[in-house]
Amino acid sequence: MGRKSDRKHSKKNKGGYSGGNDSASLARRILQFLDSNFGQEYNAKQIIKQLDIRDALNKGGVEPVLYQLVDAGKVSRNARNYFSSTKDPDFITGTVDFVNPRFAFIVPDDKEAVDGDILIKEADLKQALDGDKVRVMVFPVKGKTGRTEGRVLEILERSRDEFVGRVEISPRFAFVVPDFKKMHKDIFVHRGDLMGAEHNEKVIVKLTEWREDDKNPTGKVIRVLGKAGLHEVEIHSIMAEFGLPFEYPKEADEEANAIPEKISAKEIKARKDFRDVLTFTIDPVDAKDFDDAISYRELENGNLEIGVHIADVTHYVKPKTALEKEAFNRATSVYLVDRTIPMLPERLSNGLCSLRPNEDKLTFACVFEMDRNAKVVNHWIGRTIIHSNRRYAYEEAQECIDTQSGDYFQELTLLNELAKKIRKQRFDKGAVNFETVEVKFKLDEKGTPLGLFVKERKDIHKLIEEFMLLANKYVAEFIYKKNNGTDTFVYRTHDSPDLDRLETFSGFAKRFGHQMDVTNVQKISAALNKLMDEIQGKPEQNVLEQLAIRSMAKAKYTTEPKGHFGLAFPHYTHFTSPIRRYPDMMVHRLLEHYLEGGKSPEAESWEQKCVHSSEREKRAADAERASIKYKQVEYMSLAEQKDYEGIVSGVTEWGVFVEITETKCEGMIRVQDMDDDYYEFDERNMRLIGTRSKKMITLGDKVMVRVVNTDIDRRTIDLEFAENDRKKSRPRAFN
């Protein structure tokens, strides 16, 4: 069959197509097209149409050239005379990052297997959703964009099958419009599966079916949250969107409640007794889970003994229990604008483990002997029992220092002086001073924002921070030095910044009038600190701090004993917050194991727990940001209608992001709404340029804006330039 066709083709070639250079050029075009559309089959007519070949000679040459390519083994032909590329593809696994409705990127599990992330068109996603684990066929030739492209062959693991959204009901059917920005499909729901949900209510919907030919998935409502826009409903929506638990499992709660409160004489005897040493806790005014305390006493040799005592959570939470399983699953407490979703049940977090005043408490401690210049001359790590003399709110302790009066003001003052010296030593060694702006809301009893304020960091906050950092550092170094880093342990690491990203950030800072030298790798920390000092209290402070953090590597948990760039520590861990962080529990367990003479366990299972904890940490941060953004949108919807001063915090081809200086809320001006000119995006310089007026809108520009719309569902604020008054301002609409 094949030979017959080839003979037939040879005759046709003889009489109708001359070949030569034109043939070679046409062959290159056809081969490039088929390779770029790897896995697709086309007949000769379709190829002519796709390549837009119009002259008769080249049209007639397509089929002969195809057969030449078949003979050369570069193109495959099936029995129906359809042709396709014969190149061998690569196959990889990865995670979907669904950028927009048109395409997604696959982030490969093995970074070495392919050059960068893989672009997948929506039609080739095989109904994969954001976060899904997939198997991908990588096309052998890069696409028109110059990127590696591919096609999803199989969904290995769904990231989620439950979504939060708003119900839209029509006479015959209903859809749920998901809140999640990376879910680009509405979910069809049969009216009988609405669970009584009404139009415009928020619900949780579970995917039940998605047939290959269906444009949208089908689901059923499994929980009705309530009317969209209400505070409790929106917070529950955020919790559900990020997969945060609504309640603690009954079995774990029962385990917690069954733990006896009384501390046995045997347990006390096994610990260093600090109950007669002055000890206190310093926490936010509304805190209930006190997981760290500081003890203080003067030694006969004139030195000071400072103990950092941490709640001994792993004394109560044992491996292979329901409590342990749930703590691991949550991995961190989550702090939303109006509530805490704790890692441990209240009986432990606010009761047994919380270092409340005037109660004996079990702790794990790092105790330092220091001279008056804050030099550590000795230290001890082990289990202790304490009896806190005083519980301070940050404000109370700061007032004691400021007024030089009140309980233990002299001890607090001396601790503050030591902390300042420790801090200076840290920065002298290259630590970076990131003082991020933290926005807090004043809420009424219904959760409505009455106002917002920027949380101020005072000396007392830095005092606690320095002693916690010191304890974390010494615990990490203690384990590392035992066997030169070969013992399995949980470290908190932070890679050095990528110089290209830092160069880009330096360019951004320059637009705000700040010079930053990033050419000397050894002096990057000093350059960053100089910039952070310069921007303190200035309108651009928050924008530049956020941009600086984005240009840095992300800190993570790992068993690899690498260093921490931001803190300038060769080794660092998290030891001081086991009530709210699972990695700290892991550290306590390993520390106890080694102190009792145990051998190093295999690292793989601990590394998997580290990866899980890092992922959960990111989820918590995303949820916390979403709850703040929700309140910012709600606050701006209620705010006075006026013009606001702002700073351009981001520029994209579709819009300009502006941070309002007064409220620290960020909104967007859409390019499509900027009708005073036609603006083109200059990606290299992160700016928009008016084609007629040559007006430039650049990152860092100070502008006046007004709010024209807020959307609580999507947590967005729409702005317009206030000076653009040639057209009448659109009505201010909110939902």
UniProtKB/TrEMBL annotation:
One of the protein's GO biological processes: mRNA catabolic process
The UniProt record lists the keyword rRNA processing: no
Domain S1 motif: 641-722
SUPFAM superfamilies: Nucleic acid-binding proteins
PROSITE patterns, sorted: RIBONUCLEASE_II (PS01175), S1 (PS50126)
Region (Disordered): 1-21
Entries under Gene3D superfamilies matching the protein: Nucleic acid-binding proteins, Winged helix-like DNA-binding domain superfamily/Winged helix DNA-binding domain
Compartments, record wording: Cytoplasm
Family: Belongs to the RNR ribonuclease family. RNase R subfamily.
Name the record gives this protein: Ribonuclease R
Species this protein is from: Algoriphagus aquaeductus
